[in-house]
Amino acid sequence: MRILVLQLARFGDIYQTWPCLRALQRHHPGAEIHVLVRARFRAALTGLSFVQVHELPTAEILAPIFENADDTAALARLTAFTEALPCFDRIINLSYSPFSSYLTDTLSGENTQVRGYTRHSDGFFAIPDDTSAYFYAQVGIGRANRYHLTEVFAAVAEVELQDSDFAPAASAPRGDSILIHLGASQVEKSYPAELWIEALRNLRSEFEGQITLIGSQDEVGLATTVTQSLPELNNQVGKTQLDDVMKQLSCARLLIGADSAPVHMAALTGTPVLNLSCSTVNFYETGPLTAGSRILYAPQMSEIPAARVSEEIRAMLCGQGPQGPCYVRETRSQAPRAHAIESDDFAWDLIQALYTGTPYPKAVSGADRLAFQRLFELAELALQHIANWDVSGAGPQVLSTVDQMLSEIPRLCPNVEPVVQWFQTQRLRLGPDVAEATLVATRRLFEELLWITAVYREESPPHESAIKAIGLAEACVPELREYDFFGIEPQFQRLISLLHELARHSTNVAEVSWSSVLTEIEETLARRDFIRLADVFEYELTPALRRFASRNETIGPDVVF
Amino acid sequence: MSHEEQLKAALQRLETSVQKILSTRGYGKDAKQLKLLHEMIREQLTNANTRSATRTIR
């Protein structure tokens, strides 16, 4: 088997791909594993001897355009490059960019299994796997995702990670040194020089081991500023290659730095990290992974007090617990825990409910409940127009307006953004198809949106929802026996919403569960077997709902037919 | 002409070519390669080529 992994992002992303690559090798022992990277970042693969590395020769491809405005020659070079690559059985695109989606599509053969962004047969954007759809919807700065990028990459590649995919089991004994990475890839992620000086001066008075500064040639100026005040520091900035840094990390007790390549390298050497983080980074996604690491966070880097940095370094070196507000990475696989920080977990809990089936979090604020109500109403409106679809009528315009209004709601209430992002991503995933099939698929998505938002629409206790569901089911039966489904469709939709609401509030799965009820209803409806549907409502669902409603008003077990 | 201006000019030329080929021959092999070159240039212009995987440009 020949597998290609596209990783066209930066050094840090390549290092965060290492565990996935190792896991691929472990899962597919005989496979050839190829990696396509940009030439500039190729050094980040040094040390992974089992991969075959390909470089994207961007400068060479574009050279004719700069020399002669010759697009044809540039195109010929690009074509020669793509055609020179071998055929791949699997392509795993971990780059998440429009360019990489076209490249993945170009390199895919008829039988290539693709994961990650690609294109449909008509050139439109395609997301074939659910994890990449999750990435599109929920990952990034300012979003509520808390899965680490290494876990997301592995899920896209459909491999399970083990500790051995990160740091080697046996490593050289650690000396009494700590490493400081002063800089970061962007200015706004860098800790100011004067605060570094203050923090390291505080530390110097108590720590007798070696403090080594690391970084690239671009950070020499910053290092010079710091060492002018602290000449006793071991300044290696601009003097080492990436694999030298890897060796230094293997021997160091601790790394201190912002969101940068050394933090990701530390995950591969098992080195604990004190990570300085700010609002331009989502440290849950790209923060340190070694157990015992900690994160000091402030909206801006300059707001992290130097005293906090030095006291936390001291505590980590002495094996003491956190000295103040911070986030603690207790294990590699669990998200960092907030220590002495009040954290609003609603959006993250909502994401987990959407994607992993955990219970939906309670909406405490009136603004959140109102936002869900608006989403529910928009879904209802869309479904009404889809039910009475006329391509030359108002339907298409209404759907377009609904889409626009859905986008606006998270601006007023950010907590509902995960739902809107989920929905819009699922819409995006609908591939080219005939109009009728697209309409059916669109209807299903709006129905799901309706069911999700219905959870927040009412605060009725479950037994009251069951009583309402009984009334709706009884109202539907006579019409269904007359094959008049469209006459009762609004009541039917409302009934399904209530059943979903009951299913979400229920915690136990009995022999026949709410989800089985819903599946049977859906399948019977899909067959247009209205008589059978009427029988289900009259002889099975309604009696079960009566038994449920007659019980104690606390949440009970699933309905049993 | 600066590199940026050259890339912008190339992008415009390629946009025209891509539209033409899509309307006449659809999204086939030739269109794919043209579109690929077009995207390669576009990401150079926005510096998206050196951003992290969690960039806002999807």
Structural features, described:
Chain A is α/β, with parallel strands linked by helices and 561 residues long. Chain A folds into 3 domains: 161 residues, Glycogen Phosphorylase B (Rossmann fold, 3-Layer(aba) Sandwich), CATH 3.40.50; 163 residues, Glycogen Phosphorylase B (Rossmann fold), CATH 3.40.50.2000; 201 residues, no CATH class. Helices cover 51% and strands 11% of the residues of chain A. Chain A is built from 21 helices and 15 strands. An 8-stranded mixed β-sheet of chain A has the order 10-9-8-11-12-13-14-15, sandwiched between helices. A 5-stranded parallel β-sheet of chain A has the order 3-2-1-4-5, with helices on both faces. The radius of gyration of chain A is 28 Å and the shape is globular. In chain A, 42% of the residues are buried. The C terminus of chain A is likely disordered. Chain B has 58 residues and is mainly α. Chain B is built from 2 helices and no strands. In chain B, α1 packs antiparallel against α2. Chain B starts with a helix and ends in a 13-residue tail after the last helix. The model of chain B has no long low-confidence stretch (mean pLDDT 84). Classes of the chains: A alpha/beta (561), B mainly alpha (58). Chains A and B meet through α1, α2, α3 and α4 of A and α1 and α2 of B.
